[in-house]
Design brief:
alpha+beta, globular, six-stranded antiparallel β-sheet, two-stranded antiparallel sheet, Alpha-Beta Plaits
Length: 118
């Protein structure tokens, strides 16, 4: 069972350091990251990165720092979900199918350039 906060980051891919930049924002404030999922949302380089982050007193500072970062459009803090994330591995017609389940959650807070948004 994951006990922490879920953070969704919507950002533009400009160079290979995108994930490093996001993760280092939390790590420099000594916040542990449990899991990371990412996907491309559009063809113009917009990506969505979802992180499972341990709760910490530095959490709010890290989220505000991340929202002020170049190429980051929106940082959303999602409500905690009771269900944990899990991965299933199945074989369908001889092909391996991996399904990744991300907890469903509602938006608690939303930040863009350090300001509260929608």
């Amino acid at each position: 069972m994951f006990k922490g906060r879920i953070v969704r980051v919507v950002c533009y891919y400009r160079d290979a350091s995108l994930l490093e930049m996001i993760i280092s924002t939390f790590r420099k404030l000594l916040i542990d990251i449990e899991w990371v999922y990412g996907r491309r949302v559009s063809d113009d380089g917009l990506y969505e990165v979802v992180l499972g982050v341990r709760d910490s007193r530095n959490f709010k500072i890290a989220v505000l720092d991340l929202s002020n970062t170049v190429n980051v459009e929106v940082v959303e803090v999602l409500s905690s979900s009771e269900e944990g994330n899990y991965i299933t591995n199945e074989y369908v017609n001889g092909n391996e199918v991996i399904k990744i389940y991300i907890p469903k959650a509602d938006i608690e807070e939303c930040y863009s350039w350090g300001e509260v948004c929608g």
